[in-house]
């Protein structure tokens, strides 16, 4: 649990995006809604008994939680920045 809080604490320090709004970042927008669903499902799983299907689903959702903040979000920002620079060069 401490790791999930620390990931959120360090998020502003390792995510630097030129475009702040998700309106212009479609990949990040889609991933944001996936993490919202993931957080809701993690809350629901947390209220269930420690039985086999819930344990496996909880582990998969927890892996996606950390994967989102440590891998997918920085990668999507890099990809979108690359597309942003290509489009700026195209429209000049």
Written description of the protein model:
With about 90 residues, this protein is mainly alpha-helical. It has one domain. Helix content is about 80%, strand content about 0%. It contains three helices and no strands. The protein has helices at about 1-15, 25-45, 50-90. Helix 2 (about 25-45) packs antiparallel against helix 3.
Q: Segments where pLDDT lies below 50 for 5+ residues?
A: none
Radius of gyration: 16 Å
Total DSSP helices:
3
Average pLDDT value? 87
| Number of structural domains | 1
Separation, N- and C-terminal Cα atoms: 48 Å
Q: What global shape is seen?
A: elongated
How many strands appear in the DSSP assignment? 0
Q: Which secondary-structure class do the elements indicate?
A: mainly alpha
Main pleated sheet = none
Return the string of H and E elements.
Answer: HHH
Give the helix level as a range of percent. Answer: over 70%
Strand content: under 5%
